[in-house]
Amino acid sequence: MSADTFADTLRREDPARYLASLFAPAPVRANLWALYAFNAEIARIPASVSEAVIGEMRLAWAREALADLYARPPRVRRHPVYEALAILRDQPGAPDEALLAGLVEARNADLGEGAFPDAAERDAYIDRTAGTLMRAGARLCAPDWQPGDEAERALTAAVRLWGYTGLLRDFARLCAAGRPPVTQDELEASGASVETLRRGLQPEAAIKARQGLVDRARRAASELSAARRALPAPVFPAIGYAVLARGHLAAARRPADPYNYAPADNPLGAQLALLWASVTGRV
Predict the structure, then answer these.
(1) Which of 116, 119, 213, 247 has its CA 20 to 30 A from that of 268?
(2) Which pLDDT value is given to residue 264?
(3) How many angstroms separate the Cα of 236 from the Cα of each of 87, 247, 271?
(4) 216 pLDDT exceeds 90?
(5) Cα gap 171→233, rounded to integer Å
(6) Hey, is 30 helix, strand or coil?
(7) Would you say 106 and 157 are in contact if contact means Cβ atoms under 8 Å apart?
């Protein structure tokens, strides 16, 4: 698969990260695309299988392919994504096997059912998926960067903002799959159940159940605004897409049927927002 094909895939499946990556120098952009293509490859597995066991088998194949890739000598599977990872492996700031394997393991949660046990576990899920990917991308953009406390706060806020708005955007699909992105306490307080959310019933209860997502995303947005100046310009291509989450959050906060909330992507608007953010540093 050529870099152009990766671009097509990311433009379709991961448009926000794709658009932000365009602000990177060409060599760094190619590295980001390899990383994001791998993430897209494993992230689509849970939604593409009819039974959890099939998804588990495909994720196991991905883990084995990574083990082969990092063996000595390496054994590169004849698969475009892993061939690209074989090149990425030796680049400055490249992720190691443990990080990539962690991304695979995190996707096992997408094969289960039920609400999150608590808010801490939901935060951990976001950190293991969106967080791992954002931090890995930042290292590719600035291999020698050692973030201080304020930059760490900004990174964490960007991750949480992106992660929570992502769960809001995907709320209806996750509910239909039996994996509502709410905590057990939020579910019980709303008066809804996993089954009523799966069937698209009690929209008012669903709005109440997802309010915790809105509140946490708003908090993350405020924390990011307070700390964003600690993020250096070179990492923008790997973090800047968090600015787009602000628009997603604004749309999600408006009263609506949560089961019909499907915000349309606006590529031109996203490009302008990213351009403005890159000039002003206001992620």
Answers:
(1) 213
(2) 65
(3) 23, 18, 14
(4) yes
(5) 33
(6) helix
(7) no
Q: Is the peptide bond before 73 cis (omega within 30 degrees of 0)?
A: yes
AA letter at 81: V
- Report pTM: 0.95
User: In angstroms, rounded to a whole number, what is the distance separating the alpha carbons of residues 263 and 52?
Assistant: 28
Q: Rg (Cα) of the chain, in Å, rounded?
A: 19
In angstroms, what CA-CA distances link 59 with 43, 63, 87, 94, 135? 10, 6, 22, 21, 22
Question: 277: which residues sit within 8 A by CB, 6+ positions away?
Answer: 236, 240, 243, 283
Residue 56, SS3?
helix
What would the pLDDT profile of 223-240 be if each residue is shown by its tens digit? 999 999 999 999 999 999
Query: Hey, what are 145's tokens?
Result: 């960067």
For 69-117, how does the pLDDT look when each residue is reduced to its tens digit (9 = 90+)? Answer: 999 999 999 999 999 999 999 999 999 999 999 999 999 999 999 999 9
For residues 154 and 257, which has the higher predicted lDDT (pLDDT)? 154
Cα distances (Å, whole numbers) of residue 115 to 50, 51, 175, 236, 261 = 20, 19, 9, 33, 20
Q: Rounded CA gap, 154 and 136, in Å?
A: 15
Q: Estimate to the nearest angstrom the gap between the alpha carbon of 219 and the chain centroid.
A: 18
Residue labelled with tokens 């897209």: 40
- Tracing tokens 């794709």 back to the chain, one arrives at 18
CA separation for the pair 69, 226 (Å, rounded): 41
